[in-house]
Amino acid sequence: MASSTHLAVVTVAKRAPLEIRELSTPIPTGKEVLVKNLWTASTPLDLHQADGGLLVKHPQVLGDGTAGRVVAVGSDATMLKHEGSSLAKTNTTNQENDLVFGFTFRSEREKAQQEYVCAPENLFGKVPSGWEDRLTECVTLPNNFVTAWNTLLNVLGLALPWPKPSAFTPSTDPRILVWGGSSSVGQYALQILTYYGYRKVIATASPRNFDLVELCGAAHVISYSSPAADLEREIQTRLGGKVDFVLDCIGSRDGSVQPIAGIAEAGAKVAVMLPVVVRDANGDLEAGYAMEVEKVVRWREGVEAKGVRTHFYLEVSPSAWVDPFKMIQGDWWHKVADGHIRIPS
Question: Are 202 and 235 in contact (CB under 8 A)?
C-alpha cells in the first residue's frame, strides 16, 4: 500500500528558496492512475513561477514532466497495466506494472515534482521495451514534444496528418524559420518538419550547435547573433523568398521577438513561446514578463503573431486534436528506437 502521504517540491513565495512539504497521497478514481514518480524534469515555466511569480498561487507544487511506475488505477482505467487493478492495492516494486512517462500539470495531484502523481491515463504513455534504464531521456520528451507538435499543428496550422499517410507530402512548400533550433523544442520541431517532408526550413543557433541543428533536419543554419539586416537577407537568399512561418522557441523580447519582427513580412505567421521575457532577473531586479505577443514589439502590418501556451493544448477542438502520446508510441517511437529520431539531451 502506498504511503498516505508523500513529499513534494513547492514554491512558498516569489524568489524564495523552494521547500519540501508533505502532501496527502491521492487515490485514483475513474480513468486516473497513480504513478510512483522516479524522475522529473525542470522547465522554464518552473523558473518563471519560482523566481518570477508568474501564474502561481503559493504554495504550489512545480513541474509537469513525469516518469515512473504505475502503482494504482481507477475503476475505469484500462490503458495501463497494474497487477490487481484495484484501488485497494498499490505496489511500488512490482516490475510487471507499466513504466510510463507523462505530461501532467493541471492540478496539485497532477504536478510532477512530487513522489506520487495522480492523473488521467491518457496523459501518460508507456515506456517502450528496452528503454527501462533511460527514463531520464523519456521524462524530457512529453513537454517539449507536445509543445513542438501543438505549435506546428494548432498554432501555425501546418499540415501534420496522423497517422501519416505513406505517400504524404505537403501540398505547399512553405519557408519556415525555427528560432532557437538547438533548444529541446527546436530540435523536436525540426525533426517533426523533416518527418513530414517540409524542405525549406532554416534555423538559428550558436555556431557551436550548427552540426546538431543540421542533424535534426534544418536545411540551413545561421547564427542568431547576426545583425537583423544580415539575418533577413541571408534567410531570403537561402530559402528563396520571405519567410511564411516562424517558430520562436526562445520567447525573449530583445533576443528573439524583436529580431523576428524585423524579418517577418505581411502574410507571415509567427508563434512565440510564452511568456515573453522582457527583463531577466538580476540581483535585486525582478524578471519582467509579457503575455501579449502582438503588443510586445511593433510588427509589420499583415503579420499574424500568436503566443504559445502549451498547457492549454487539451482545449483544442476535438476535430483538430491529435493525441501526442499515441503518436509518440507509434511510428515516431520506432524511429527513435532505430536512431532516426533524436531525443534532446
Answer: yes
pTM of the model: 0.90
Distance of alpha carbon 342 from alpha carbon 217, whole angstroms: 11
Average pLDDT over residues 146-164: 92
Angle at 2 between CA 43 and CA 83, to 5 degrees: 95
- Give me the helix-helix angle, 141-150 and 184-195, nearest 10°: 60
List the grid coordinates of 273. Answer: 513561446
pLDDT at 224 over 60: yes
Distance, in Å, from the CA atom of 141 to the CA atom of 133, rounded to the nearest integer, reads 15
pLDDT tens-digit readout, 52-61: 999 999 999 9
Residue 41: which of 119, 142, 133 has the closest Cα? Answer: 142
Q: Around 190, how many Cα atoms within 13 Å sit in the side-chain half-sphere?
A: 34
**Distance separating alpha carbons of residues 140 and 135, to the nearest angstrom:** 9
Question: What does the alpha-carbon distance between residue 44 and residue 273 come to, in Å, rounded to a whole number?
Answer: 10
Which letter does DSSP use for residue 265 in this model?
Answer: -
